[in-house]
TrEMBL record:
Its main location: membrane. This is histidine kinase. It is an enzyme of class 2 (transferase). The lineage of its organism: Bacteria, Pseudomonadati, Bacteroidota, Flavobacteriia, Flavobacteriales. Keywords: ATP-binding, Kinase, Membrane, Nucleotide-binding, Phosphoprotein, Transferase, Transmembrane, Transmembrane helix, Two-component regulatory system.
């Protein structure tokens, strides 16, 4: 009992004939004094309250801090020697002799919380003798007042007097502990003879002899029953305090006691109920945990949840949720728990991902269906959450393996979501959980399977009402006579082994009509105290919707496979990991393999080795941008011959943009490749055949031009000059077609060498100024710089770009040719003042045979820029164009500098 927490004891202390000062053992602060104590030292009470022991020492008070610390440490009383002090009483300085006694005050657990200092003034012996009668009279008066106050204290209190420990005083609560017995005026061992030789007697003797208090919690005491006089085991929490007379000797004992027998019995019953509830909770197929307060302390957890968290009960109980599982701090669960406690709303989540970091640093991804339901405390306020969850990781992963059809499957496990404050408080709360659980639960008693309990959900599933409770299962559900359930229950009852089944089919009568239902079910045997099977707990989840959805998907998948076998293309499916799950009939016939062989090793072995790397890179890019990868590839058929195909690998994305599967479509284009090869061969042949007559015509025209110049015939000179330009143009076109043919056949050959790029610019510019006298060629090139390239092919690119600039700009305009060197690259710039290019045409300029549709009728086949781009790319360079329609164009290309 806390001395200063009872108003009646406050009055008792105030009326004490001794000076009393109470010091807090931890803070060393004065918590209480009476007027008698402060008057002894000539001070007022307010000057002491709240002061520390150190402050009192500085004020000159004779208090000893070391003694206080010793009393706290040893839990023993200390009597200090008499002290002579000079104090100021009523303006006069007096010398007094004071004795101080330091006594510990303890809690029921025996720890010292406070120290009481008793101060007694010691007067001269003659004065003591003269006033002894008065003091005794005053002491009797004070004791009488104390006895009256003790009757009001809400605890059993008795005062034992003398060495025979005679009951001097008892209050009503103490008398109620032994009703019908006369106590006052009798020695305790006479009034309560069953205490003779007991530990209680030994403790009383020890307190009386040593003057030290003793405390006991939940101590067993055997007392006679007032009715039958039989000895009973009763339990008390009590404290024995010595009472001192004016000479400082023990002359009695104070007893403060509470009977806790009923409380301990309730605790035992509570633990038994809690143990039963824990067993039942651990039988449930769901993971269950109760979390309390804003710091999310785990109060209760079942074995299924511990297994899911991979924790022991010691690591979990009483610990904050985020301290147990710090991995979940960045996931939504802590916020949802607090929201449920704050708002009272139920949170029900399906297929939530939960990520755990394993001891080796790997991430364990799981999926759960879970329900958060608010719990209220004894004060009616929300202070906790009941979490019930099912781990469905295996089912989610299985659903993912069905690729496109996974979205059509819903694996739904109904959650246990009950509202209860503390599961261990009463059996009625468990019944509430049992009745209101969204999972079908029933209890069958005995080998006849009498329906002892059935919650609302199982009655709904069975299609019955509460009227079947008390009936046998066979009578309540006659339609199951020819179904396997009664036989399964008999096996469980006989063997004691639980039965588990997923997607078990049942035909149950609903509104006079048999209804097909699929269940995930558990038959859990429950043993009695002797270990014999007495009951069977039935827990079932209706999964009809998921099963029907899966069957529908399987039907759709079979239909898809049938269609895929009918189309002429080769169709395949693969997981995001690349594992192929389907090849259609065309693929298998082409490869000459069965599905298993082709899945395990055949697909990549059929690819041409030169194309595997590009194919893998293309798949990575397709997965990143969500677009199909289209490529021309060679696959080896059953005869060992490589056949060209157009291969399209399309990623299928979910709503978050994540690849869920791949669909492949592969079409035979061998005939197209052969046609293209024949076309290239024809172009190459025609180009070679045309070059011989063109060369002869060019020679004859040059001879005719010289004769015309000698004859000074302007008309013929102009005619021959224009003819030579057309011959040169024809030669360029033939060379272009020949180069295109070489490119497509992979025979374009580069003869690279080191040369000064500025010298090449100077050489070609002299030709440009003579050849294109109609335009102003302006040069601005960098100093000497060496490149490693095919000199003739780079000159061909320059000729093509400058020729285009002349072709598409008016006579008399300027053409700027310049170079820049930086970052180990040389950039060549050709800028004209011509008609320009529309924005929509710029991206297609370098495509083969592409010509910009302009109003002017300028000849050409659209291969010059295509060839230029291929030549620059073959040199690991870059080419591009910029233009504004109507104001001119600028073409650029870059080459690496040696």
């Amino acid at each position: 009992m806390n001395t200063i927490d009872t108003p009646i004891l406050d009055t008792f202390i105030e009326s004490s004939p001794f000076g009393i000062c109470i010091i807090n053992a931890e803070s060393q602060l004065v918590e209480m004094t009476n007027d008698k104590y402060s008057n002894l030292f000539g001070e007022i009470r307010e000057s002491w309250l709240g002061k520390s022991v150190d402050e009192l020492t500085e004020m000159g008070h004779p208090i000893d801090k070391k003694v206080i610390l010793n009393v706290v440490g040893t839990n023993t009383t200390f009597n200090a020697q008499g002290l002579k002090l000079k104090v100021n009483h009523h303006g006069k300085e007096e010398q007094i002799d004071i004795s101080l006694t330091y006594s510990p005050i303890t809690n029921p657990d025996g720890s010292v919380t406070k120290v009481t200092i008793w101060a007694v003034e010691n007067n001269a012996r003659t004065i003591e003798l003269q006033n002894v009668a008065t003091e005794k009279q005053n002491l009797n008066v004070e004791r009488q007042r104390s006895y009256e106050l003790l009757h009001e204290i809400p605890a059993g209190i008795a005062i034992l007097s003398g060495k025979d420990l005679v009951f001097e005083l008892i209050n009503p609560l103490y008398q109620d502990l032994v009703p019908g017995r006369t106590l006052l005026g009798k020695p305790i061992l006479e009034a309560l003879p069953e205490l003779v030789g007991s530990e209680v007697e030994k403790s009383l003797r020890k307190v009386y002899q040593e003057g030290k208090p003793l405390s006991f919690s939940n101590d067993q005491v055997r007392l006679s029953n007032s009715v039958s006089e039989e000895l009973e085991d009763r339990y008390f929490t009590y404290r024995l305090l010595p009472r001192f007379n004016s000479e400082g000797s023990v002359d009695g004992i104070f007893i403060f006691t509470f009977e806790v027998t009923q409380l301990l019995d309730s605790k035992v019953n509570l633990e038994r109920t809690s143990n039963n509830l824990n067993q039942i909770i651990n039988m449930l197929p769901a993971s269950v945990v109760i979390i309390r307060y804003d710091n999310l302390i785990v109060e209760m957890i079942n074995d299924a949840n511990l297994a899911y968290w991979k924790k022991t009960r010691e690591e979990v109980i009483g610990k904050p949720f985020l301290e147990i599982l710090p991995d979940l701090a960045d996931q939504p669960f802590a916020g949802q728990l607090r929201k449920v406690m704050e708002t009272g709303e139920i949170i029900d989540v399906k297929e939530s991902p939960v990520l755990f970091t394993e001891s080796d640093g790997t991430i364990r991804e799981t999926f759960v269906d879970y329900t958060y339901q608010p719990l209220t405390g004894l004060d009616g306020k929300r202070d906790g959450v009941l979490v019930m969850s099912f781990e469905i990781t295996d089912r989610v992963n299985a659903r993912k393996q069905m690729q496109l059809y996974a979205d059509q499957l819903l694996y739904a496990n109904d959650q246990l979501s009950m509202l209860y404050n503390r599961l261990a408080k009463s059996e009625s709360r468990f019944k509430f959980v049992f009745q209101k659980a969204p999972v079908a639960i029933g209890l069958l008693r005995g080998k006849d399977f009498i329906i002892e309990s059935a919650n609302e959900k199982i009655l709904e599933v069975w299609g019955k009402t509460e009227s079947i409770v008390g009936m046998t299962l066979a009578d309540a559900l006659p339609e199951i006579q020819d179904q396997p359930f009664l036989g399964l229950l008999e096996d469980v009852f006989t063997t004691g082994k639980p039965f588990y089944a997923n997607e078990i089919r049942a035909m149950l009568m609903h509104e006079n009509e048999l209804k097909e239902i699929f269940f995930n079910v558990v038959y859990q045997p429950i043993a009695d105290d002797d270990g014999n099977i007495a009951d069977i707990l039935v827990v079932a989840t209706d999964v009809s919707e998921q099963v029907n959805a899966r069957l529908s998907v399987e039907k759709s998948e079979a239909y898809f496979k049938m269609l895929a076998d009918l189309v002429p293309a080769k169709i395949s499916n693969a997981l995001p990991t690349g594992e192929v799950t389907f090849f259609n009939k065309q693929w298998l016939e082409f490869a000459g393999m069965n599905f298993e062989d082709m899945r395990d090793f055949g697909y990549y072995q059929m690819m041409h080795p030169d194309e595997i790397t590009d194919f893998q890179v293309g798949l990575s890019e397709a997965a990143a941008n969500g677009k199909a990868h289209v490529s021309e590839m060679r696959f080896k058929n059953s005869d060992g011959k490589y056949i060209w195909h157009l291969n399209i690998a399309s990623p299928i994305l979910d709503e978050l943009g994540t690849v869920t599967m791949w669909v492949g479509s592969t079409t035979d284009i061998q005939w197209l490749k052969e046609e293209e090869q024949r076309k290239n061969d024809f172009i190459g042949m025609v180009s070679h055949e045309l070059k011989t007559p063109i060369t002869s015509v060019n020679t004859y025209l040059q001879l005719l031009l010289r004769k015309a110049e000698k004859a000074d015939d302007p008309f013929l000179q102009k005619a021959y000059t224009q003819s030579l330009k057309q011959i040169r143009h024809m030669t360029d076109m033939i060379n272009g077609f020949l180069d295109v043919s070489r490119l497509e056949s992979g025979k374009l050959h580069l003869e690279k060498s080191d040369f000064d790029f500025s010298e090449l610019i100077e050489e070609v510019c002299i030709d440009y100024q003579l050849q294109y006298s109609t335009h102003h060629i302006i040069l601005n090139f960098a100093d000497a710089v060496t490149v490693h390239a095919d000199r003739l092919k780079i000159a061909q690119v320059l000729n093509n770009l400058v020729g285009n600039a002349v072709k598409y700009s008016e006579n008399g305009t300027k053409i700027h040719l310049s170079t820049e060197v930086n970052d180990r690259k040389i950039k060549v710039i050709i800028k004209d003042e011509g008609m320009g290019i529309k924005p929509e045409n710029i991206s297609k300029l370098f495509d083969r045979y592409y010509r910009v549709e302009q109003q002017s009728k300028i000849a050409g086949f659209g291969i010059g820029l295509y060839l230029s781009a291929e030549i620059i790319e073959a040199h690991d360079g870059k080419i591009w164009a910029e233009s504004e329609f109507g104001t001119g164009s600028t073409f650029y290309f870059e080459l690496p500098v040696k």
